[in-house]
Amino acid sequence: MASLLLLYLLALVLLAYRLYISQTRKEVLLLLACIAAGSVLAAYEGVNIAILLAGIMIFSCMASTYHTKDNYLTVLIALFYIADFYTLPTFMAQAMFLGILSGAFFFMKSNKDRNFRLERRRDIFQILLGLILIAAFCFIPQAYAKLMVILLATLASPIGNYAIMNKKSSVSKAVYSLERRGAALGQGALWLLMGTLLAISFLSATEVIAVIASIFIGDSVATLVGTTYKSPLPYNKKKSISGTLSYFVSAAVLSFPFVGYVGLLTAACAAIVESFPKQIDDNFDTAFALTILIKILAYAGLI
Question: Which domain holds residue 261?
């Protein structure tokens, strides 16, 4: 009982701090919407609401203090939270997803400055990371794989923050070598993380692999092929026919061993969604669409 009261107190203190640093009404409304969604999730899944709300506020503060020294303290609090509730990785993933989402306006920046060599490095790194995640969800228990994602995401925050605040350091140079010019450091990575967190919050291990195959590997292969063999799509000149086809093929090949012929459907859905001209973020939108599609197919008994 005392521990639950402490969680509620922590959530209230962090909520007050988060409201204090919010700069626009939209940020406040999004934060409140994420808290409401967390409350509904907690009630639906039968978990104590204090656990989920405290997690949402911890990760919300961690995301919103990025670029400041306060980030290090929020990361420390997050690590204590993870250590305390490591037996509830799904709920922690949901809390992290909603917490980071509550600060999404910070990352909603258009970014048109792309460099071919930089994109190539980013895509190769993203493919390698995707293969590591697929191996994790394939060979280790799902709960541990989820914890790995949550822990790595938490530890990546202070590294990125250090890189921002110490731009002459070797760490900063290494991190910025993978970021597009003009973009907030970690912008693309955070949207990719949110797509991953959404999948691991609601899908089984094999279904998560289908999503990872699309947003990590299919997306990167599409960029590599599309920038080499340019053949613009009729409805989106920034995307190519060759890129969209290579997206489908690579995602389908990797998904098929885990979800069977459903992998063809998820790969097709992902390739189509990724090709749309107007999006929040292509990886996040794709993960969102795939999570809904897979849940519908599972409900219909097709998975």
Answer: 116-299
